[in-house]
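Each record in this resource describes a single protein on a pair of labelled lines. With that in mind, the following record should read easily:

===
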Amino acid sequence: MTAIKKAMMAAAGNAGGDPIYVEDVYNCQVWSGTGAELVITTGIDLSGEGGAVFIKKYSGNFARAGAVYDTARGANNDWAPNSTAGEVTQTQGLKSFSSTGFTLGTLNTVNESGSNYRFTATTFRNAPNFFHHETVTKSAATDATVDLSILTTVGAVLVKRIDATGQSTLYWHRSFDAGKLSVFNANGAQATNGDITVVGTTLTLVDAQIDDGDYVIYAWAHDTSDEGIIQCGLTTSSASADASTEYPADIPTPWEPQALLYKYADATDNYFYQDTAMGWGLTLNYRQYFVPTLTNSFGSGRGYPDPRGCYMTTSAGTTNVVYMSIRRPMKVPEAGTEIFSIDHYTGNATVGKEIGSLDYADMAWIRTYPAVTQTNTFQVFDRLRGDGERVRTGVTTAGSKNVNWLQFTSGPKLTIANDSETNPSGEVCRSYQFKRAPEFMDVVAYTGTGSAHTEAHGLTVAPELIIIKNRDAADAWAVYNSTVDETDYLVLNTTAAVVDDATFWNDTAPTSSVFTVGTNVAVNTSGEDFIAYLFATLAGVSKVGSYTADATLTTIDCGFAAGARFILIKRTDSTGDWYVYDSTRGIVAGNDPYLLVNSSAAEVTSTDYIDPDNSGFQLTAAGSSTINVNTGEYIFLAIA
């Protein structure tokens, strides 16, 4: 059984149950307020399965810390995380739950009109081994208990009184000291408090300790297995008083997280929340966070995710930190349209132009292709590095940054501003957008050590194509391909043939969990930062392959049903360009436009080197001097 199938069954919590992925039970979403009724599509079935939504405004005017809604209490009823007040009926707040998300009204707290008013919503769906919520009444002279056995192991619990003002909102965490709780609405340190207890999987609201009344309970699981999707734990960070320096505290999980909630256990300090939709990546000012219990607290500079957990930053001595970490998307795609899109657009030099059809894309390649005024090669951006972080495919230049180039965090779609390279007025641009997904594509960032070592990845299968760039120095792009062997490398920014050199991959093939880098400066300079893009063959979706050309019409069978939409081809046994074709510009029975990844040359539209084929694509005899040279050896990446 594959790791993904195990994860499906583990999350389902019952033999033979419908598979549940983290995508089915958790979502983080961002949007700009419209001031009009707004449908938020998360893909989460709240109306059928039940769940909760935590909404926070993180730019603009702040009147409340946020609003919490759930299906147990019903739409229109919210409570504020920074207050001891009970729930409030808001007819223009979250108006309804659906099988794919929820609908917002015009309430300023959740949907104030204005492009500068930005919101985020975190959705938790009831599911075994993940999350459960319900309402409970604490009556006089008796305990009230809640059965949380659906979670198997309880990780954290939030208890909020909803019928009256006065009772503090309480947070229990499995890593707090015995008998201690945190007052959530006051960002309190853990302290002795007998209002609630959690013993095994039973939550008790203790008589004569907690006020009588009506409460809503939110509870999260803790699952340390490789197949789990949530962990609630404790880490210890050692830091000096120098807040300008990063002090990483490792939070190990067997997977990369997409969201993290944490606080210093022993200090009256904020709860911090981060997720990849808002922007949680490598660059310091791209590590966005908010404090759920404060009205206007939103900032950057805390922590970043890693394929085997995450790092977080603290700045005050040795500190115990309790956390809740949630796994990144884990679903294996079934169609290329789920994880790859092509967008050809005409630039308008205006701020906020949306591009592409994918929601929350993880990587984008962009360039102008008539090259009327621009002569640059593809610009490569990714969500992990952050807004405006760019490397170019056809040059050795180190990475650079300009937030006007491209933004991942403005909403579900990627946006560009008034930049002359990604949004030049009147010029036609090409954008390829990719989503990270098991068995298809992954993005890994690492810091070189100068010594051969392994780096973890989340592809879940052995990568067949790895493309690496030093972000800090003018080093060449390094390319690994499984069909030319782990002893060899290629260079993305040149036409060079394959070269045998053990210093690139240490003559070690990648595995389903790690890839190896040698001592070459192009992949492993000590103290310098690198970005790696990993691809694999996924039946019906993508194909990393090779062929020996014969200069005649040849079908390249990729196992697709409706042909390839994207094709990247490189000759390996001799010099040759990196050719890229796509179906939007044309993969047809006639001339097929192409660009070169390694060159700033303008698009070529006068050749017919390839033809369409439902199984993949065809090489034509017309390409006998380029991509179909007799006896030539080639590699390719194709996406359906």
Q: What stands out?
A: Residues 336-434 form one domain. The chain has a mean pLDDT of 90.
